[in-house]
Hints:
This protein has 209 residues and is α+β, with helices and mostly antiparallel strands.
Amino acid sequence: MLGISYRKANPTDYILHFSRGKLTREGAGLSFFYFNPASSIVSVPLASANIPFVFNEPTADFQTLTVQGQMTYRIVDPTKAAAMLDLAVDAKGRYVSDQYQKLPERLVYGVQTVVRAEIQGLPLRQALVHGDKLTARVLDQLKASPEVVQLGVEILNLAVLSLKPTPEMAKALEAEAREALNRNADEAVYTRRNAAIEQASTQGERAPD
């Protein structure tokens, strides 16, 4: 019949079928015939997805830190996601707008906002050595974020893969670390020599006539 279409969704796609403006069916992996001219089909992906990110943020001592990592998320409330984003598809299952790309962008922006607030409160050295604690705090804040909840999203994991200062600052920190190691080595040699001299002197004093 003219205007009749068939829709078969993947098991990881949650479908909302609207007919004449009313929700007539919904569920994951639905298969059904529908009258195309009077229908609107919304497809919400349920599978988990990874989002890579990289951005630069200033530390408390005004040093630039490059943050690189990956976030894993999934949509757990498709109704909320469909209300916040235009996820309508055409008869061939293609999204009719670029709104499906906006969700990763908004989540990455949320990550950057939380990371910025954390890093701006830390000097460079502290930020570099406390990456695990930084990641844990950011993850906790993201999970409780009102925007994440409104989008119907669950943050599964957050991995900060690297925290890097500028090349110039990295060289300065390496030089400072080498100098500190050299000083420690010199102090250790000096201490051993003094101990050896003191021991030899003590043994000399105790030697019989």
